[in-house]
Amino acid sequence: MQSKESAVPLREDKLATEFLANERTFLAWIRTSIAVISLGFVVAKFGVWVRELSMHFGSHAPTAGTESSWFIGVAMMIFGGVLAILAARRYHVVNRAIESGRVSADRGLVYLVTSIVILLSVGMTLYLVMSEAPGEPRDQRSAFSKQ
Question: In angstroms, rounded to a whole number, what is the distance separating the alpha carbons of residues 131 and 72?
Fold first, then answer.
C-alpha cells in the first residue's frame, strides 16, 4: 500500500524526530480504535437497555428496531480491532522506511479507513431511519416516562 514514487529522503539528524512522530501517530490510532470499540459496545448494549426499560415501564417505551443495534455495535467493535491492526502494521512499515532513510505517504490506508467509516455511517443512518416507527407522532415514540 505504500507509494514508492513520492518517497522523501531523511537526514540523519532528523531520524529520532521521525521515530517519535511515528510512535505518536500510532498511539493516536490506538486511542481512536479504543474509542470506536467502546462506542460499539455501548451501541450493542443499547437495544438490551431499551428492551429492559420497556418491560419496566410497560408498553410505553419504543422497542422497534432495537435488534439492529447489536449488529451495528459488533461491526463497530470489529472496525476498532481492525484499526488497531492497521495501526500496528503502518507503524512497522513506517519504522522500516525511516530506518532505510526514505518515507512516503500511504494513500491506500487512508482510502480504506475512509471507506469503512462511510459504510458504518450509512449503516447507522439506515438503522436510525428504519428504527423510527412510521405513523406514530414523534412525541409518543420518544416519551419513556408517559404513562
Answer: 13
What are the sequence ranges of the domains in the chain?
Answer: 13-132
Q: Which residue has the cell 532528523?
A: 14
List alpha helices for 58-106, DSSP H: 68-100
Please, are residues 124 and 46 in contact by the beta-carbon 8 Å criterion?
no
pLDDT digits (tens, 9 = 90+) for 108-145: 888 988 998 898 888 878 877 776 655 555 555 444 44
Which element (helix H / strand E) includes 54? helix 15-57
Span 35-65, pLDDT tens digits: 999 999 998 888 777 777 777 776 655 555 5
Nearest to 74, CA basis, from 99, 55, 97, 48: 48
Can you give the length of the chain in residues? Answer: 147
Q: Any bridge partners for residue 102, and if so which? A: 9
**What whole-number distance in Å separates Cα of residue 99 and Cα of residue 111?**
26
